[in-house]
Amino acid sequence: DSLLKTAHLRQWLWPQMLSPNLPDKLEEGLTFTSWLGLIPVQHQVLSADDQCLRLLLSQGIDGYHEWYWGDGWLQSRLEGISLLPLNLGQTLSLLKLRLFLSNQK
Questions:
Q1: What CA–CA distance (Å, rounded) separates 52 from 14?
Q2: Dihedral of CA 84/90/48/105: which sign?
Q3: Which of 5, 61, 94, 105 could make a disulfide contact with 57, Cβ separation 3.0–4.6 Å?
Q4: Cis bond before residue 85 (omega within 30° of 0)
């Protein structure tokens, strides 16, 4: 739910902003934009199901982001070309998600 429900995404991704008027849940075929400060990143949802989320990224990051999960584990893979520090951003996102999930218990 923390990866697919937009209300949860908005909470743990803050201060990254998401497009307004997103549906309650990410679905295959959806395209939306997030902003890292003034830098837009367009996301196209390639797959969204109960164990996987795949996003094609463009504009501020040209690449893809994949999330896989199961009972007690999570894997995230981000590959792309950008002037943004992708490794640092990925690490911070995972830490923020972990904190968000620990506060949900």
A1: 22
A2: negative
A3: 61
A4: no
The pair of three-digit structure tokens given for residue 7, joined into one six-digit string: 């209300």
Distance CA 97, CA 103 (A): 10
Q: What is the mean pLDDT of residues 87-104?
A: 92
- CA 21/CA 94 separation, integer angstroms: 25
State both tokens at 58. Answer: 């463009």
Q: Tell me whether residue 21 is exposed, middle or buried, using C-beta atoms within 10 angstroms of its C-beta: 0 to 12, 13 to 18, 19 or more.
A: exposed
pLDDT of residue 42: 97
SS3 85: coil
β partners of residue 52: 68
Residues in a beta bridge with 25: 5
Q: Give the amino acid at 51.
A: Q
Neighbours of 94 (CB within 10 A): 13
Please state the length of the chain. Answer: 105
Residue 105 has pLDDT above 80, yes or no: no
